[in-house]
């Protein structure tokens, strides 16, 4: 069994477990027990532990990060509000908060534990579901929980609300979310030892006559005294948003993100605490707006040392006094230039408008500007001074001219690569490596070397070359997508999601990135996010068969069998060809599979067979869930024509034949069930399904023995 099948079996195991007669119990002389339920997935690790060096070199400190959940909401565009009540940047603010929360140098939240509602997704129904159903169902007493909201906050008839995307001003009570309900959610429904509410809600553009920011802010701060609540402004102030902060943000959220990235860590221990973030955000927003906007945090009974973010690279040898922050202003001569400060992307700058980056700790920082196809400017060291602006002019001037010999090697590599099969992939890899040896900045050669080694199952080399391509051209989004695909093959879903998050923010029309996100989330059992990403991928690239496949897988896991069947059928229709046919094979070689999270094997038809087999198995399972046993058997038998030794398909057939025996009493059905259970045991004796199959076989043998004794007394 190849690794892809093993990966999918891990998902199948979540819903494949039968309720069986306990091992060692007396066999039942009736039909074998075949009732099955879908058990909950395995518990997640409750804590992530990191070792960091303290001030004394010999000392070590353990930083424990609780299991963490977050809901991130950002609404710029409101369905029913007039143009003058629309907002500019809450959607971008929410995306930035999401990015820093899932970053290993920030909040360190597992990506599948952070739900995001942007614009049209942030309906009243969806907000209610997340706050009243999802978070209460997953959180525990020792968890860390964060809720972020950017959008309209307002008052109507003396009651404070947050405004969902679909608010109707003619029916506010029925279409807005009361802050009193938010308080009950946080205080009574949602569990956790650390609860954080960050709201950027009092924007300009009042949507009701009662534009009472005082009531809005006071309500948010008084929701629950054990909660760390920080709001964008104090009574009667508005929250400003502008392109002068990081290229387009609410000022408050800009500093929240910078603080969580590590700028708020004033004592140099790598930890951003609640008090540190509050002080950093308040100081910088107040300074940036000449005291026109003053973020406020309620100093209630919450733990002031609650850990909001941890960046071990920010640990310093001694505690330092709080700095007075400076500002970097980046100018450029070309549009679409991506800027990196201290190795971290801070945004894209165009020649018509500088990129302002306030809130930077004084001192030396490295600045690099990149543009695909050109030599980068930097990295070079720039000094940031307390309370001052430092203007940095970056120039993208020199187009990369490829060495002719390197290009020849690259073109030969592409010829081998497009032919497929193991020998050709090895020859292709050698040509790409020769091209890189001649021209070490040939990012395309590094990308295709990574793809060739990915096809050969050499994960280490594959990942190294993908990372090299990104190192050469950090804005090479295609390389990031391929790197994410290889990470999925290697089982590193978290880093794959982080890479794909960069791609989708830079290119919201990348259907491939959304398809890969759907796969990553599905394999992390985050089926809601997987469904959302798959639907986005299908909207952008309807012909991407695998997006339909992962949508089907996720819908099936949500017990939406009929809709899942439609998506499996769509996948099978889109991939209904002999993969050896001329022209059709290019579907795979063109990038839809190869180097994109699905292993391409040396034999061209293998991945085609695997996916079609798994799709038919999915259809079989959907029919089984609906108790349509005859059609379920048809699909499972079809699946076995593609993947005869698939463990789960054999297991499911054994279950179905056993259930049919319970209905008809046909001994032939029991024999068929036994055969498939034996196949499971033979394929992988250590699998959970094999253990269950042994119990089924014992029950079947007991029934057959009883029937034999009755027939031959």
Summed up:
Helix content is 47%, strand content 16%. With 713 residues, the protein is of the alpha/beta class.
3D architecture notes:
The chain is an alpha/beta fold and 713 residues long. It has 4 domains: 3-38 and 607-711, Tetratricopeptide repeat domain (Serine Threonine Protein Phosphatase 5, Tetratricopeptide repeat); 64-314, Rossmann fold, CATH 3.40.50; 326-394, Carboxypeptidase-like, regulatory domain (Immunoglobulin-like); 404-558, Tetratricopeptide repeat domain (Serine Threonine Protein Phosphatase 5, Tetratricopeptide repeat, Alpha Horseshoe). 47% of the residues lie in helices and 16% in strands. The protein has 24 helices and 22 strands. Helix 17 (545-557) runs antiparallel to helix 18.
How would the blueprint of this fold be written?
Layout: H1 3-12, E1 47-53, E2 60-66, E3 68-74, H2 90-102, E4 114-118, H3 124-138, E5 144-150, E6 153-156, E7 159-162, H4 172-175, E8 177-178, H5 179-189, E9 194-200, H6 213-221, E10 227-231, E11 241-242, E12 249-250, H7 251-263, E13 271-273, H8 274-288, E14 296-297, E15 307-310, E16 326-332, E17 337-341, E18 344-349, E19 355-360, E20 363-370, E21 377-384, E22 389-394, H9 404-419, H10 422-438, H11 443-455, H12 459-472, H13 477-490, H14 493-506, H15 511-523, H16 527-540, H17 545-557, H18 561-574, H19 586-592, H20 606-625, H21 629-642, H22 647-664, H23 667-683, H24 688-711
Parallel strand pairs: 3-4, 3-5, 5-9, 9-10, 16-22
Antiparallel strand pairs: 1-2, 6-7, 7-8, 10-14, 11-12, 13-15, 16-19, 17-18, 17-20, 20-21
């Amino acid at each position: 069994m190849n690794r892809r099948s093993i990966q999918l079996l891990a998902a199948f195991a979540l819903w494949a477990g039968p309720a069986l007669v306990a091992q060692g119990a007396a066999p039942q002389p009736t039909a074998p027990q075949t009732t099955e339920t879908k058990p909950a997935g395995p518990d997640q690790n409750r804590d992530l532990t990191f070792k960091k060096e303290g001030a004394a070199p010999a000392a070590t400190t353990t930083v424990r990060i609780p299991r963490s959940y977050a809901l991130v909401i950002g609404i710029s565009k409101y369905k029913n509000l007039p143009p003058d009540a629309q907002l500019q940047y809450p959607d971008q603010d929410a995306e930035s908060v999401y990015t820093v929360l899932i970053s290993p140098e920030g909040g360190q939240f597992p990506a599948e534990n952070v739900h995001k509602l942007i614009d049209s997704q942030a309906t009243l129904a969806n907000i209610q579901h997340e706050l009243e159903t999802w978070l209460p169902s997953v959180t525990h007493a020792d968890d860390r929980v964060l809720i972020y909201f950017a959008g309209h906050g307002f008052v109507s008839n003396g009651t404070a609300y947050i405004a969902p995307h679909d608010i109707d001003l003619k029916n506010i009570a029925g279409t807005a979310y009361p802050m009193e309900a938010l308080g009950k959610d946080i205080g009574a429904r949602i569990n956790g030892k650390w609860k954080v509410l960050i709201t950027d809600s009092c924007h300009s553009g009042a949507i009701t006559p009662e534009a009472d920011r005082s009531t809005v802010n006071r309500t948010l701060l008084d929701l629950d005294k054990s909660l760390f609540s920080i709001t964008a402004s104090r009574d009667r102030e508005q929250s400003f948003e502008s392109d002068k902060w990081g290229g387009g943000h609410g000022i408050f959220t800009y500093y929240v993100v910078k603080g969580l990235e590590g700028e708020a860590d004033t004592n140099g221990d790598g930890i951003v605490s609640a008090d540190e973030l509050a002080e950093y955000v308040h100081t910088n927003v107040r300074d940036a707006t000449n005291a026109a906007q003053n973020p406020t945090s309620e100093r209630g009974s919450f733990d002031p040392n609650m850990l909001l973010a941890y960046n071990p690279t920010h640990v310093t040898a001694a505690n330092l006094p709080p700095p007075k922050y400076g500002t970097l202003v980046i100018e450029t001569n070309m549009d679409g230039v991506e800027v990196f400060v201290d190795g971290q992307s801070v945004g894209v700058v165009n020649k018509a408008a500088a990129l302002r980056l306030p809130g930077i700790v004084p001192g030396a920082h490295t600045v690099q500007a990149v543009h695909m196809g050109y030599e980068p400017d930097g990295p070079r060291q720039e000094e940031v001074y307390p309370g001052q602006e430092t203007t940095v002019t970056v120039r993208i001037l020199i187009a990369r001219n490829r060495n002719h010999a390197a290009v020849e090697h690259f073109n030969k590599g592409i010829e081998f690569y497009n032919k497929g099969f193991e020998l050709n992939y090895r020859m292709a890899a050698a040509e790409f490596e020769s091209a890189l040896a001649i021209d070490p900045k040939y990012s395309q050669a590094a990308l295709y070397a990574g793809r060739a080694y990915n096809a050969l199952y050499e994960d280490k080399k594959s990942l190294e070359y993908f990372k090299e391509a990104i190192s050469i051209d950090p804005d090479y989004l295609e390389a990031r997508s391929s790197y994410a695909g290889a990470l999925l093959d290697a089982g590193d879903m978290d880093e794959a999601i982080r890479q794909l998050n960069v791609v989708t923010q830079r290119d919201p029309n990348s259907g491939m990135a959304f398809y890969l996100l759907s796969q990553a989330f599905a394999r992390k059992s985050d089926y809601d996010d997987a469904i959302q990403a798959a639907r986005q991928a299908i909207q952008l690239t309807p012909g991407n068969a695998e997006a339909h496949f992962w949508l089907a897988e996720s819908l099936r896991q949500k017990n939406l069998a009929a809709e899942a069947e439609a998506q499996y059928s769509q996948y099978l229709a889109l991939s209904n060809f002999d993969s050896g046919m001329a022209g059709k094979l290019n579907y795979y070689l063109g990038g839809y599979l190869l180097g994109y999270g699905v292993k391409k094997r040396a034999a061209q038809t293998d991945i085609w067979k695997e996916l079609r087999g798994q799709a038919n198995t999915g259809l079989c399972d959907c029919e089984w869930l609906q108790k349509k046993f005859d059609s379920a058997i048809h699909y499972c038998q079809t699946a076995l024509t593609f993947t005869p030794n698939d463990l789960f398909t054999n297991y499911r057939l054994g279950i179905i034949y056993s259930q049919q025996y319970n209905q008809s009493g046909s001994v032939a059905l029991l024999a068929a069930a036994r055969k498939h259970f034996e196949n499971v045991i033979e394929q992988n004796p250590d699998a959970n399904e094999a253990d269950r199959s042994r119990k089924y076989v014992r029950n079947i043998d007991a029934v057959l023995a009883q029937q034999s004794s009755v027939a031959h007394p």
